[in-house]
Fold:
Amino acid sequence: MLPKNKLNIPQGMRDWLPGEADRKRELINRLLKQISLWGYDEVNTPMLEYYEVLLPDEKWAGSEQIYKLIDRNSRILALRSEMTLPIARMVSSKLPPDYPWRLMYGGEVFRYEEIQTGKQREFCQVGVELLGAAGAEADSEILALAIESLRTAGLEEFTISLGHTGILKGLLESLTCEDAQMKQVRSLILEKDFVGLNNYLLTAGLEAERIKQMIGILTCQFSIDDLEKEWQDLPYEISTALVDLQEIIRLLRVNNYDRYIQIDLSTLRSQEYYTGMVFEIYTAGIGYPIGGGGRYDQLLQNWGTDCPATGFALGVERILLTLPQEVKEEFAQPIFLTGNDATQIITKANQYRKNGKRVFTKIGRITRIEAEALALRKGAILDWCEEESEDV
Structure:
């Protein structure tokens, strides 16, 4: 009997079997083709990076999610846990400052996190980075492209929860908290634990009325129209953030993309490098985002480059889980071409392939019943190339 470790794979990883791998590759290709129509060029980075690339600021959280190893020169390496940081390193070190750079990618990332349905420790992301472009025009392009990408994948029912890091900055600007306290406040907001936030701020000595105002802003059910109201007595950071969101929505309305947007001023992302608008994408049946992104104007400074930037990433496996059944069946469905006439089958198969169809063939003796059974097992469409006969 073989040892278990010869047949098993590490926890949080998975094998992609025939059919599954086809659907995944087809989805990646669809997404990248759609994104390329917006002028984005594909890039890729190594799966292994130096650890300091993935955690350039020691104050950032997330080190416990990074897979680390030591090379023969005693340097700490890490499997990439996302794509934004490696691309920021690449742009800063390899590309001339011919901004804006519109870059897209599709690749595997590794993150040591709790495992549940649709959340693995190795997963694929397709995304974009728009570098060297500031302001609402660039941010609205990112949001519009995320929407079009999901629609191209076959999703129509989804919501983009849109927020802004300026909201949190404005709420905390009058607090004299230490870094550890700031991190705890941020963590509670990320978890949407507003009861815990209330208790924590009370313990920290903040006045109850001030806490009520803060939590009221974070939990307020904003409509898009609310952004256009005249807001009084708000901290500068919050007022500026609301104006920024208002302009982003105005541009999205041109193509009716605003129907996918829900304003949620408590929206944050786990990465701490975001500096402006942030968003997460949700769809029915999954209790965590299928994608997200935002603006990160200061990130490239870690590599000596001063460059505004914005982008997003979509979780390929999560999208596959949410696709309607008819879309899943459509992905990569092959044609099974069979019969006795070799010339006819080879000619017809080549024509199918020229038209972008996947075809597999069998030339020789096979009954119609056998052909139908084989097509069914392979999830294929049967093309029977001769008269039905039980003895051919």
Observations:
- The longest strand covers residues 101-110.
- Confidence is low (pLDDT under 50) at residues 388-392.
- The chain has three domains: 10-153+285-318, 159-282, 333-384.
